[in-house]
Amino acid sequence: MNAQIPSFNLNQTETAQTKVITLAQHKSSGKTTFILNFASKLIAQGKKVLIVDLDPIRAAEDFYKLNASNVKARIENLTKLVSESLTDNRLGDVKRYTNSISAWNKKSTLNIYGSSLSAFSLKTVKSTHPDFDYILIDIPANLYTSSDEIKPEISQLFIDSDLVIFPVKTEPQELKTAPKLGNYVANLTQFCQSKDIPVNTKFRSLLCFESSKYRGDKGLAKISDTIVGFAKTFHSTIPPILAPMIFRSLYPNKISEARSIYSSDSVEAKTAQLEFDAVAQQIINTLN
């Protein structure tokens, strides 16, 4: 609890209707996969979503641009598809195309904001994008400075967010990062309290399970036991969201093709949607 907290501006931005969720963890933890699927879920509920991509890899931004470029082609194909469906019984394809176009072709519903971490200002983004219901922030995978401390810009972003989520893959090596993150949250909270600075941010972990390793009733029991054990250990710092994310899920990861789990009507996708719906609802409950 004696780790040094770097100096930064701890004055939180003004509370607004917009909910700010920041995803923080190392590469391949599932944070970008989560953000893009969560954005799809929120859009389907009629919410306006702004994705802020601060990761130099720009996976979220690439997803958005590729999807936007595909929309025009989808619209052009729709007329032909409708006529063919009358003879080939492909009404399911028409429905899927229509849903995809209506969800992703609304510029006021989803937008992407690319920036570097050092140049980013959440206050500026909120003032220039006031009409969004949610701002989802994907930060760089490298959280730490050369002296093994959380970067000051990231600490500031945590303080300004409504919810910070740390995806944690339930692998032995991955779970070793949890105590470090838990200690950081405890130190940050303690430091702010010592300065009489209110911290309204909620910190949560999101346990991510490889679906192939947790099959059947035994797999479900193991998932439940892992969540309970994690919650007991980190209940005061980064308690887990009660619904886990089935990492990559039963539906093959299509993020590189600009497709979320909500882009398909297959049996596998429907199963993945049910799993992720539970995660999304837990997050919404946490914010309320």
Automatic annotation (TrEMBL):
Sequence ranges assigned to domain AAA in this UniProt record: 19-190
Pfam families found in the cross-reference section: AAA_31
Superkingdom of this protein's organism: Bacteria
Protein name: AAA family ATPase
